[in-house]
Amino acid sequence: MLQQTTVVAVVPYFERFLARFPNVKELAQAEESEVLKLWEGLGYYSRARNIYKAARIVVAQFDGVFPSTVTELQQLPGIGRYTAGAIVSFAFDERAPIVEANTLRLYARLLGYDGDPRSTEGQRLLWEFAEVVLPQSQPGRFNQALMELGASVCSPKSPQCETCPVSGFCRAFRDQTQSTIPRLAKRAEITAVIEASVAVRKKDAYLLRRRNAGERWAGLWDFVRFELTPAESITQIIDAVRDQTGLKIDLGPQIAELKHAVTRYRITLKCFTAETVSGTLHKHEEWEWVPAHRFGEFPLSVTGRKFAKLLAADNG
DNA sequence: AATGCGGGGCT
DNA sequence: AGCCCAGCATT
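Output (structure tokens, whole complex):
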């Protein structure tokens, strides 16, 4: 959960997740959709699919006993060099180096490394350093301590060098380059996208689609949804709904405009209702009529959830 | 080496 | 409006 996600955001998800899946066997016995439901809103949903796959592998191939070496752990889906090192050093207190956001910043500053720490060269350097500084005794405690130092003292902006216990070893402090190190590559440009979502209703049920593997929010459910071209008109939205679902609709009023940032897109989502519905649904398995009271069983995309909330408010 | 993947918190 | 976050997998 913590991969590229702040502790603050993770905590409530972590609590709920462990309450429901206290051990690897319980997780392995669940349905993937239930795992995704608990992950709903946290983002990077491949992590949920991966931890579920990994649990099943641990149970099926390791007899339910978690592997304890970096090499074995890295074979599991979703476990890379950092996570494997974290598990080995934290859980088993074996000597395995780690480099993540906090130690990356700390080590780059200690070394005074002026290049991009995420480049191949930077990674080689930092992992080498992490290996060299790692003590024989209590490596897990050491790794966690340095992560904490990176998070609390060696912060991205205005680090507290005056109170830092290792400022005497820090090249960035010596050279007063804390503000320019680490020099992370600029993020990709943001593209603005306009989409439309239509709540197609039959009696008390709405038409939802389980998003396919390989597309964004794979495995999560969503209302009918598609990208609009700038000149899109009402009739073109109606046509798009028919293309996707096979259903003929009369478009109701737009009830909301949701703004949502995802990866390198800033999405403006225009949310509509469908007044009348006729015709037959395309025989694609991913479509399902879901009564509103059963939404709790379906992991929804964030925008899908917001839309559903609006619809509930709309219906009184 | 570059890109896709999410969402929220903080400045 | 940017920047950043206990990264990983794929191309």
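The domain at 99-186 of chain A is CATH 1.10.1670.10 (Endonuclease Iii, domain 2).
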